[in-house]
Amino acid sequence: MSVAVDGTVASGLEGVRDAFVANFVERGEVGAAVCVYVDGRPVVDLWGGHADPEAGRPWTERTVVPFFSATKGITAVCVSLLVQRGRLDPDTPVADLWPEFAAAGKGEITVGDVCAHRAGLPYVEGEWSLAEVLTWEPMIAALAAQAPVWPPGTTHGYHMRTYGWLVGEIVRRADPGGRRPGAFLREEIAGPLGLDLWIGLPEAEEPRVARLVPPRDSFRDALAAFGDDLLLARVFSNPGGHFDYDDMWNTRALHAAELPSSSGIGDARSLARMYAACAGEVDGVRLLDDATLAAAAVTRSSGRDEVLMTPNRFGLGFMLGASFGAANPPTAVGHAGAGGALAFVDPERRIAFAYVMNDLRFDPAGDPRSEELVRAVYAAL
């Protein structure tokens, strides 16, 4: 099998290209891109395969793709920028910024608790139409009024989608301009760095979006068999039972939605460039200083996740170390995305890595596509 792979690789990193090609030849990759920065400079920028396998549309240099929860890492960068500017303190109660949030015993929940999935609000109660779910205010009001499902701060459980509304509203209230993460990203991160990165995609960019290839079996249906006794079953399709990893994510409505937990769209080049700017200058732009990034990487949650039922580790909104990629270095700070996306920065080595793809896979043992790419990067460096 032959595959067209385009892009550039610096001398000495040819093994990364070999691993990328092997993903297509040996692992059936459909369409994907990988980018690596070292010391603020791109050393790998590759793409290949099909952006739309049904239409035969190739993945090009300009292709962008949804990357699900890798969006949480972008939102976490927004939080850390506000911390760095003195607009936000992770250890203060959320209710100091958002008074309505104090309802139902939530007055002591801190910003850090919310960012580290410790707030006890992993789902939104009630029945909701998809239109309501994709509108900001109904979700914000519901979460502000809702009681936590475990004593806040006592344990952690993945706030799969509620992370976006909770952390996003914290960003909005801390930002002097009252911007939600979508606008904050464009004006404070993507604009200065020249990134193709959005939370809420403009309609003009729609033709560039790769078509996702959903898994054959429905996760929503499989989990529904367990009923509400399984917390993950309540969380996965919430709010309103609308969500699954299916063709809904190939619609304009989902691309346009501002879900700072999961509706990010962009390319590997932009994710890697953003993370590189968190650990050093990139073309004269630096997002986070050393102290801010180090503080964001302090472990706030670790051990068994009450929702995912597996061990993981979180800092201030970021996933940490090998908890989100078996090949990741212990110092990795970033976030994975459902189906296989992976993006992080290694501040000790000043390496930033990003991999995105359109063929959604869910292997409990980990995704070998991203893992082999990470291994190749560190073998070369």
Structure description:
The structure is a single chain. The chain has 381 residues and is an alpha+beta fold. The chain has one domain: Beta-lactamase. The protein has 13 helices and 13 strands. Strands 1, 2, 3, 4, 10, 11, 12 and 13 form an eight-stranded antiparallel sheet that branches. A three-stranded antiparallel sheet has the order 5-7-6. A hairpin with a 4-residue loop joins strand 12 and strand 13. The longest helix is centred in the first third of the chain and has 15 residues, at 70-84. The protein is globular, with a radius of gyration of 19 Å.
Biggest sheet statistics:
8 strands, antiparallel
- Going by CATH, the architecture would be 3-Layer(aba) Sandwich
Specify Rg, calculated over alpha carbons: 19 Å
Instruction: Tell me the number of helical segments per DSSP (H or I, 4 or more residues long).
Output: 13
Keywords:
381 residues, alpha+beta, Beta-lactamase, 3-stranded antiparallel sheet, 13 strands
